[in-house]
């Protein structure tokens, strides 16, 4: 990967992956809103805590125990909100996010230097500068997501592992 073409192709792939990640966050927000509206329509949130605790302990059978766990998870998801849930989902792949952002920053800097040396157009320089700014923002945002996710995971670790799988 020493040629400029290879670096450009890798930068394109990283950009597409970043767009895919942003799309997934938006799609998760849509699914979250849709699920929340469905629960409001079916009045599933009207189960008392006492009944949920009994069902969770298995007093009403295995199916009721599973439903109680799902209901508690859904309630916890509503309490957290979509922003916190998205941060937790990003946290699962944080090393990939850090690596991709760092590689993108390196490629942006290397290609900017090549374009400047070859007296390239200002459009190319501006595009690389914009992408560099996005890559730095991505790296800083990933670092902030890690700190926030660690504090969230300490609040209720027993449900958070299940929430991320649902």
Question: Keywords, please?
Answer:
mainly alpha; 7 helices; Polygalacturonase; transmembrane
Would you summarize the structure shown here?
With 166 residues, the protein is mainly α. It contains seven helices and no strands. The protein has one domain.
Low-confidence stretches: none
What general form does the structure show? elongated
User: Could you tell me the number of beta strands?
Assistant: 0
How far apart the termini lie comes to 39 Å
Fraction of residues in helix: over 70%
How many individual domains? 1
Radius of gyration: 22 Å
Structural class of the helices, strands and pairings? mainly alpha
Major beta sheet summary: none
Run of helices and strands: HHHHHHH
Task: Output the number of helix runs.
Answer: 7
Beta content comes to under 5%
List the SSEs and their pairings:
Layout: H1 4-42, H2 49-56, H3 62-80, H4 82-91, H5 94-117, H6 122-155, H7 157-165
Helix pairs in contact: 1-5, 2-3, 3-7, 4-6, 5-6
Keywords: Membrane, Transmembrane, Transmembrane helix
Protein name: Polygalacturonase
Transmembrane segments: 12-32, 94-115, 127-150
């Amino acid at each position: 990967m020493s040629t400029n073409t290879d670096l450009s192709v890798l930068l394109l792939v990283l950009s597409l992956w970043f767009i895919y990640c942003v799309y997934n966050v938006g799609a998760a927000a849509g699914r979250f809103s849709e699920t929340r509206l469905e629960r409001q329509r079916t009045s599933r949130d009207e189960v008392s805590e006492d009944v949920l605790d009994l069902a969770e302990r298995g007093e009403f059978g295995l199916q009721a125990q599973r439903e109680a766990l799902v209901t508690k998870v859904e309630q916890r998801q509503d309490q957290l909100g979509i922003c916190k849930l998205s941060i937790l989902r990003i946290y699962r792949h944080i090393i990939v996010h850090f690596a991709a952002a760092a590689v993108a920053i390196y490629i942006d800097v290397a290609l900017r230097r090549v374009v400047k040396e070859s007296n390239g157009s200002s459009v190319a320089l501006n595009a690389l500068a914009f992408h560099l700014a996005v890559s730095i923002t991505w790296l800083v945002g990933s670092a902030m997501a890690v700190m926030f996710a660690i504090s969230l995971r300490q609040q209720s670790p027993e449900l958070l592992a299940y929430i991320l799988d649902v």
